[in-house]
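Methods — Computational structure assignment.
A single polypeptide chain was analysed. Its primary sequence is given first, followed by the predicted tertiary structure written as structure tokens.
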Amino acid sequence: MLDHLDKAIIAAMQDDFPLVSEPYKELAEQIGVSEEELLTRLRRYRRCGHIRKMGLVLRHRKVGYRANALCALAVPEEQVDAVGKKMTECTAVTHCYTRLPQPEWNYNLYIMLHSSTREKCRQIAEQLAEDSGIVDYVMLFSVHEWKKTSMRYFTD
């Protein structure tokens, strides 16, 4: 059962994360608890599954990226971990994940690429595929940036 403080912490963690040297200390002050109490509770939420992940929302156009593409690759199953690791070493890759291939869609590894132009995205994908020995991949370019929001809990 979540108490009032739990709900306040979860609500605060949904807002913009402070870009300061001690972000948890700042959040704790905003909530009215010690930094240690905040961190203890966050660890507990993680262990029990109340919080599964923390991440950022990249508004890529605001930081200068004008092109982005989802690149789907057909990677031999025994190479997925190694190829995925190699892909995430590239700074243009912001997401990397697997999905089960389907009979009509044999791709199983997906990466999201961001760059200044579509041509640069293509060059990056081509180089990553070549470096990984992958020959079968497709690129799906974004044509519209949708509003990026997450679920919000305990907002009142």
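Note: The chain has a mean pLDDT of 90.
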